[in-house]
Backbone:
């Protein structure tokens, strides 16, 4: 059983910050990892880029010191989020994307970029009450196509 | 498909990266001769042996990096990164 | 008569489950577990097809996947392997490559003129004269082998999957199963891939003990968590153990391609029995010892009634036992190990009847079983770089030594008892698992997101396996007579000898010239015999001749599986549902589904020029640029100057690639001190983003610029037409639309229809007074609705892509990629004032400078056909009058509703670019028309009074 949910209205911000900036220090984390801070999921999705996801994202973004080489873009309307949850969630993604979504390579809280069904996605392993779950972030214009491809892939499970 | 060691993401399928070919120096556009510029545009060494080439981790960290690849054996030498043990080559990934 | 044997023979079939099917229309019955071929043989149907060139009757030779001449049509599916495909209820099976019928085939006449059909026959005979080829082709097509393709067959469902196992084991015989089991027990994740339907390999047609052992090992593998893929083939091994697996038994799909990145690959492909080369070796009733045993022990089918067995090994001896257990009388055992031999088989058209021995004696029989040795299918090892070496004492090739992450086991590397093979497999599985642990440790350590690895990297295990012995085997390849070497391609030993005589004397050449080894068996049955024939012809040893390179795929794979699941991403703006609900005709532009028009594009043009129109231009690429060095970046990317763009300013820019060719264009606005919004063409959005990242990261890593794509986040609406200011004014309070406060080519931010953080700029692609607004997409449906509602009395109407294209052509704006191509350097556009050669650097500058200096380039001009009712096709050629010399082409053309005449943009050589020049345009119909070059690119309002108002 795989559950696919479109989280259409999740607030999102992208923060870019160079090493040594106040924003980079405040957000922290290792590249490829994520952490829940209150009702914000903070993801270090690239060496110099963090995603702030969830209801707390706007406030956290507004509170950041963006001095130095740091910037923020509200991506709430650019990108959309799709959650894939269930014991066979990794098997579903494995039909559409080349990355290793298993526990060794993508443990809970890991984050990575990978093409899923031909759409570039940022993916966060974000288990829900112990159940395997992946949060997929993608350009919102693809979402109709993308949900179709996901449901099709998940139909065998 | 080659497993290419992205310096940030780790070993990646070559198909998940963008290959930007042989690494070459861009001449000074103000002073270069047509021959120099067109060498930069079109001419490649294409050696049988070690080649320094450009890759772009387009689906991962979105960083450009260079790597040495042996064109005969496919062997790759990973760029040595700060804080990581030097001498780790892609050959060791296999 | 039934050839079905009583139980316990037939371990693969379930006699309690009968299956009905038809064979060439005749109703027959088989059992669950039967292959099509075994069911046919059980019904006494022993001719399954006709050979490719000579149309000789053919039957079962090997009774497994590689059986070369048992290809049949099943319902609407052609080219089904009857000796592999399991029988299913209701199958309509028919013979292929026969006309008019299987038993009477007129093309069998080919057999009489066989000498004309030797190797190279087609090349040589039909080469000249070339003009007759269509005639030859027409006739030859009727002789082409293969089944019938039904063009109405529904599109099949195929699938794809990625996998990241520790160990992939190719081959589910005793060694392969033991390897998979040992690896799984050592903690590896294992995929065990077996070509046939059941695990077991040769144990399945071996002794009772063998069969029990097979069942037990298979059960152990399953219990140990091995992922078992039966009826699946490891089709290829590529760099770093990238493994392709064709899976034919996944529910719900015809075939599935698995792309696995294995840490270790174990190759346990076993051996394949070689047919013997002698006269009559393709008669139905001649088969390999493995084939006979599979029919008897697995399918409970009696392959004949009176047999001659020609044996050089234990498999032949074991076949004798199997035949006896099936009640088949053994007319003669001819033992190659004691110097005996056979020279020919003869019979009726349909069956072997007599075998002639080397001593001249003849023996009557209806079954001839041969056991003359083995081919090592080293394909996967070849793909890993291994070059097999021939061992004359064992009469087969062995791997020389694959790379460390590929391990071979079982019959591929030696011989032994069942327990010895299992022991070697276990040792191999343990080694594979040990090496996989090290590889996994390294990959995890090198991957930031992975679970951290504890402690030191484990030692890389050395190969300390006890090698299997190699059984001695006589070299038995060909008798004193000639016979078929490649059954599926109908290539005989005589063909190979004559090809060698003609000079095709290397193994790679003879293969291509004769097509031996190139059929559906992919050389599995034929390669070593081909090499042996060539060695004989060259009077050399097999080791000296060497073997061909085996390349992927190991076995044929369907194109559907390679194509996989069809995933073609498409994009839509948030307004798409409004477009659909309002009669938009969709058009796919790149990945974007867009409204082409809402019924009448000409009316949409006129309404926009008269009243006001709105268009959804969301696909316009939009990049958010932030940082102190944005002006430097823009100066580098665009041909014009950007250092002094004021806040609130918008500028048009042209981008070139480094070869000076036009790459993209668009406008960029300065929103704030260090904040810009760049637009690109719709199709160029992703390309330009990566282009910018490349410049920033590789040439100017010191520049501080952050680039973020926001194409989808901002829904873009162009409001164009004389009433556009009035309309927008009704929706905003905080943007001053007074032309002095907000002039052409300026940008403002504010609230539109109650939506904050909107961006509006004045630009003019349509040539009208127009505002392009960029609205946070979550609110775009509301803003679009408000525009229509508030503008109803102003005549507002939506317009589509086609109307926009017409209006831009009326204004003479070129489109990158439509009016320019991959050879159009920047000066072609005529925008020379924007090509600032006094800047320090910009992408493509040197080439552009040299192009301007040489003056040798075509230019874009506007032209109008002298007969305004004719619209020349886009890409119509422009010729020097009265000649066939091409001097240009029409790049865009439309009927202009505004001017009520046809209008064009064209690229012409400079000689033809002067205003007033008459151009001769060749239409697709062949007619030539004239058109006149215009003074301005704009056909309409060249001064731009309307858009600047």
Residues:
């Amino acid at each position: 059983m795989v559950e696919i949910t479109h989280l259409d209205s999740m607030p999102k911000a992208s923060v870019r910050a160079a090493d040594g900036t106040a924003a980079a220090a405040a957000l922290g984390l290792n590249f490829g990892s994520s952490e829940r801070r209150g009702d914000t999921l903070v993801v270090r999705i690239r060496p110099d880029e963090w995603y702030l996801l969830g209801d707390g994202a706007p406030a956290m973004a507004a509170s950041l010191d963006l001095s130095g080489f740091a910037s923020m873009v509200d991506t709430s309307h650019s990108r959309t989020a799709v959650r894939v949850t269930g014991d066979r969630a990794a098997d579903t993604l494995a039909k559409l994307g080349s990355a290793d979504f298993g526990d060794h390579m993508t443990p809970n809280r890991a984050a990575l970029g990978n093409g899923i069904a031909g759409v570039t996605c940022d993916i966060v392993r974000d288990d829900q009450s112990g159940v395997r779950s992946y949060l997929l972030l993608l350009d919102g214009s693809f979402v109709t196509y993308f949900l179709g491809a996901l449901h099709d892939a998940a139909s065998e499970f | 498909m080659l497993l290419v060691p992205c310096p940030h993401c780790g070993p990646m399928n070559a198909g998940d990266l963008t290959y930007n070919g042989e690494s070459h120096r861009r001449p000074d556009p103000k002073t270069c001769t047509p021959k120099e510029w067109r060498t930069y545009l079109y001419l490649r060494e294409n050696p049988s042996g070690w080649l320094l080439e450009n890759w772009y981790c387009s689906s991962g960290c979105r960083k450009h990096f260079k790597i040495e690849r042996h064109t005969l054996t496919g062997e790759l030498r990973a760029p040595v990164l700060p804080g990581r043990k030097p001498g780790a080559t892609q050959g060791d990934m296999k | 008569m039934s050839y079905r044997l009583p139980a316990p023979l037939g371990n693969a079939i379930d006699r309690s489950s009968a299956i009905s099917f038809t064979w060439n229309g005749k109703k027959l019955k088989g059992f669950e577990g039967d292959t099509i071929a075994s069911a046919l043989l059980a019904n006494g149907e022993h001719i399954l097809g006709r050979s490719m060139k000579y149309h000789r009757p053919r039957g079962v030779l090997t009774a497994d996947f590689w059986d070369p001449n048992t290809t049949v049509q099943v319902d609407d599916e052609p080219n089904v392997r009857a000796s592999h495909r399991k029988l299913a209820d209701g199958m309509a099976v028919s013979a292929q490559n026969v006309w008019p019928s299987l038993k009477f085939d007129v093309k069998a006449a080919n057999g009489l003129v066989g000498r004309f059909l030797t190797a190279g026959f087609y090349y040589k005979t039909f080469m000249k004269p070339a003009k007759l080829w269509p005639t030859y082709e027409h006739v030859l097509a009727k002789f082409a082998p293969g089944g019938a393709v039904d063009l109405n067959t529904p599109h099949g469902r195929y699938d794809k999957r990625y996998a990241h196992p520790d160990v992939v084991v190719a081959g589910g015989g005793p060694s392969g199963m033991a390897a998979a089991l040992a690896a799984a027990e050592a903690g590896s994740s294992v995929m065990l891939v077996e070509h046939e339907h059941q695990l077991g390999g040769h144990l399945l047609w071996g002794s009772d003990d063998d069969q029990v052992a097979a069942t037990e090992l298979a059960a152990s593998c399953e219990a140990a968590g091995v992922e078992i893929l039966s009826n699946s083939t490891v089709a290829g091994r590529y760099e770093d153990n990238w493994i392709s697996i064709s899976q034919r038994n996944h529910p719900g799909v015809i075939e599935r391609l698995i792309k696995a990145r294995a840490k270790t690959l174990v190759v346990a492909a076993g051996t394949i029995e070689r047919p013997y080369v002698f006269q009559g070796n393709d008669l139905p009733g001649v088969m390999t010892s493995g084939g006979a045993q599979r029919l008897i022990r697995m399918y409970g089918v009696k392959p004949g009634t009176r047999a001659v067995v020609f044996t050089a090994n234990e498999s032949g001896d074991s076949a004798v036992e199997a035949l006896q257990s099936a009640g088949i009388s053994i007319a003669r055992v001819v033992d190659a190990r004691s110097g005996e031999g056979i020279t020919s088989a003869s019979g009726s058209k349909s069956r072997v009847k007599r075998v002639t021995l080397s001593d001249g004696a003849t023996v009557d029989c209806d079954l001839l079983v041969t056991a003359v040795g083995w081919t090592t299918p080293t394909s996967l090892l070849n793909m890993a770089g291994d070059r097999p070496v021939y061992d004359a004492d064992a009469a087969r090739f062995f791997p020389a030594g694959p790379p460390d992450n590929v391990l071979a086991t079982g019959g591929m590397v030696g011989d032994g008892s069942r327990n010895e093979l299992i022991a070697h497999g276990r040792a191999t599985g343990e080694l594979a698992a040990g090496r996989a642990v090290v590889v996994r440790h390294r990959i995890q350590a090198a991957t930031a997101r992975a679970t951290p690895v504890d402690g030191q990297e484990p030692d890389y295990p050395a190969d300390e396996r006890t090698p299997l012995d190699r059984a001695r085997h006589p070299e038995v390849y060909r008798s004193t007579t000639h016979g078929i070497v490649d059954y599926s391609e109908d290539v005989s030993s005589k063909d190979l000898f004559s090809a060698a005589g003609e000079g095709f004397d290397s193994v790679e050449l003879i293969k291509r010239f004769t097509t031996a080894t190139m059929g559906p068996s992919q050389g599995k049955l034929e390669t070593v015999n081909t090499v042996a024939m060539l060695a004989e012809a060259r009077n050399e040893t097999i080791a000296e001749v060497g073997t061909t390179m085996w390349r992927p795929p190991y076995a044929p794979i369907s194109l559907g599986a390679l194509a996989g699941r069809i995933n073609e991403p498409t994009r839509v703006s948030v307004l798409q549902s409004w477009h659909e609900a309002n009669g938009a005709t969709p058009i796919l532009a790149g990945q974007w589904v867009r409204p082409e028009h809402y019924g009448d594009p000409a009316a949409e043009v006129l309404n926009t020029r008269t009243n006001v129109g709105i268009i959804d231009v969301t696909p316009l690429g939009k990049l958010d640029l932030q940082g102190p060095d944005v002006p430097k970046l823009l100066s580098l990317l665009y041909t014009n100057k950007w250092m002094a763009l004021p806040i609130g300013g918008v500028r048009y820019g042209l981008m070139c690639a480094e070869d000076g060719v036009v790459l993209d264009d668009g406008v960029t606005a300065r929103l704030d001190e260090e904040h810009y919004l760049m637009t690109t063409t719709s199709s160029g959005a992703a390309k330009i983003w990566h282009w910018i990242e490349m410049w920033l990261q590789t040439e100017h890593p010191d520049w501080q610029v952050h680039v973020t794509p926001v194409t989808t986040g901002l829904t873009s609406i162009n409001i164009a037409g004389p009433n556009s200011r009035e309309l927008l004014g009704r929706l905003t309070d905080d943007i001053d639309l007074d032309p002095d406060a907000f002039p052409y080519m300026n940008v403002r931010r504010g609230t539109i229809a109650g939506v904050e953080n909107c961006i509006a700029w004045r630009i003019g692609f349509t040539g009208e007074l127009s505002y392009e607004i960029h609205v946070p997409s979550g609110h775009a449906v509301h803003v679009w609705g408000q525009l229509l509602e508030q503008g109803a009395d102003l005549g507002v109407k939506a317009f589509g892509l086609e109307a926009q294209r017409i209006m831009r052509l009326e204004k003479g704006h070129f489109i990158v990629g439509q009016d320019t191509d991959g050879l159009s350097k920047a000066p072609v556009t005529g925008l020379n004032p924007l090509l600032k050669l006094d800047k320090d650097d910009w992408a493509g500058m040197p080439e552009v400078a040299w192009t301007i200096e040489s003056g040798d380039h075509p230019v874009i001009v506007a032209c109008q056909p002298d007969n305004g009712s004719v619209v020349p096709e886009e890409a119509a050629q422009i010729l020097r009058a009265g000649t066939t010399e091409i001097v240009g082409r029409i790049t865009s053309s439309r009927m202009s509703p505004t001017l009520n005449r046809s209008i064009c943009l064209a690229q012409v050589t400079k000689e033809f670019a002067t205003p007033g020049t008459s151009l001769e345009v060749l239409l697709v119909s062949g007619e030539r028309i004239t058109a006149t070059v215009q003074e301005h690119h704009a056909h309409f309002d060249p001064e731009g009074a309307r858009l600047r108002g």
Summary: Chain B touches chain A at residues 8-9, 13, 15-16, 58-63 (CB under 8 Å). The beta strands of chain B are 3-6, 10-13, 18-22, 50-56, 64-70, 76-77. The longest strand of chain B covers residues 50-56. Chain B has one domain: 3-27+37-93.
